[in-house]
Structures are given as structure tokens and as C-alpha cells.
Design brief:
Elements: E1 9-21, H1 22-27, H2 36-48, E2 52-55, H3 64-76, H4 93-107, H5 114-117, H6 121-129, E3 133-139, H7 140-150, E4 156-159, E5 173-179, H8 188-198, H9 201-211
Parallel strand pairs: 2-3
Antiparallel strand pairs: 1-3, 1-4, 1-5
């Protein structure tokens, strides 16, 4: 912390979007959905046949995944996420439309079974890794493991989250981890050596290849 500002060194990034089973779409001659309504319609076909067409979980005890989808999608609709005083802008026409869409996923389209809608983020990922889910909200940091565990390989593809408007994507949520040394660290020199190692070209390359993390070094 210096001059009232907190500094950290980024060592990993991830983009949040949607993974989908390209093989399943090919077998039904379905295109990659270009709108949220098309996503619901296509997912409903697979759910009707016993698969998890769309793995979306809104369990309030594990709400990270749903929030990571809801907030950028809402922002892309032109809504304010925060009021001027910093409080959450919960009620807006866009938020009502998006909440209605979530309700419709379960009750109108029947694209998301109720037990899936009440699942948490980890359970959603396990559905994808087992190969049960056709569409799943996830991030680039999970793709490598999901491709391996599901046995889909490159047939598990990644796409931006669509919006309600055809040809328009919802904004991508970019996340990442930062390394920082606490002001009262007892061994700041050793901590800095660790940061140098963690952000080195070799380690960044290893993380990218083994875990699917997006490197922060342009050279990697």
C-alpha cells in the first residue's frame, strides 16, 4: 500500500462465458445459439430427452456462478448495476426481464430442471464434467479439466454469453488473481521471490497448459 493505494501483481486471468457440447449440436444440426431465447429453446430439446440441456444453478448458498452470469448480462442490457450511492440497483425494467427469463427457463421452456436450478456452482461443473450438460456457464480456467473429464476433448467449445438481441453478445466478465505482499509481512523479500517465480514465463506457461489459466505475460 502506497499513497493510499493498494497494489498487486496479476498472475492469472479468466474469462467467463459458456461451454457447449459441439458434438451434440452437430448431431441435431443445431447452430450455436445467438440469443438467450434460442439458447433456452435449444437446451429444452436436450432436457426433454433426459440430458441437462442448460446447467444453470441459482442456489443462494452458492450463488457465485449465477451472479457471474447475471451481473454482466444485466449490464449489457443497459441497466445500472449500482446506484450513485454505491448500493445495488436491484429493481429496473432490465432486471425484471432477466429474472423473468430465469423463471421461464424452468417453467416455460423447461430447459433447466428444477433440481438443476437449485444447484450450486460446483454441482453445475460436475454435471458438465460428467458429460450430462450440453450448455453450461463456466470460465476459461475450467475448460481444460472439463474437456478431459467429459472425454469430449475439443468438442467442448467455449462461446460468449448471448443477449436478447440477435448478433449482440453479453459483456464478458473478466476475473483473475493478484499476488500482493501485506504491509506487515515478516519476510517481504522471500514473498517477492515467490511472486517473481509465480509470474515467471516458465510458471505462466505451465499454468496455461495444465490448468487453462490465461497468462498475464504477453510473451506467454
Amino acid at each position: 500500500k502506497k499513497d493510499g493505494k493498494v497494489y498487486g501483481l496479476p498472475w492469472e486471468l479468466r474469462v467467463l462465458g459458456m461451454a457447449y457440447n459441439a458434438k451434440a449440436l452437430r448431431e441435431k444440426s443445431m447452430p450455436v445459439p445467438g440469443t438467450l431465447d434460442a439458447l433456452a429453446t435449444e437446451a429444452a430439446v436436450f432436457t426433454k430427452e433426459g440430458a441437462v440441456g442448460l446447467a444453470f444453478g441459482f442456489n443462494p448458498a452458492d450463488a457465485t456462478g449465477s451472479a457471474e452470469w447475471f451481473i454482466p448480462t444485466l449490464s449489457g442490457m443497459g441497466a445500472k448495476v449500482l446506484n450513485d450511492d454505491g448500493s445495488a440497483a436491484f429493481d429496473s425494467p432490465q432486471a425484471r426481464k432477466l429474472v423473468q427469463y430465469i423463471y421461464d427457463l424452468v417453467h416455460k421452456y423447461k430447459a433447466v430442471p428444477m433440481d438443476v436450478a437449485l444447484s450450486g456452482d460446483e454441482a453445475i461443473q460436475q454435471m458438465a464434467e460428467s458429460g450430462r450438460a450440453v450448455f453450461v456457464r463456466t470460465g476459461t480456467h475450467r475448460i481444460a479439466a472439463m474437456r478431459e473429464k467429459s472425454k469430449l476433448g475439443t468438442d467442448l467449445q467455449f462461446m460468449p454469453v448471448p443477449s436478447f438481441e440477435k448478433g449482440k453478445r453479453s459483456p464478458a466478465l473478466l476475473q483473475g488473481w493478484h499476488a500482493a505482499i501485506p504491509a506487515k509481512a515478516k519476510h517481504p523479500d522471500q514473498a517477492w521471490k515467490f511472486i517473481e517465480h509465480w509470474t515467471s514465463k516458465d510458471t505462466q506457461t505451465y499454468q496455461s497448459q495444465s490448468a487453462g489459466y490465461l497468462p498475464v505475460r504477453e510473451s506467454v
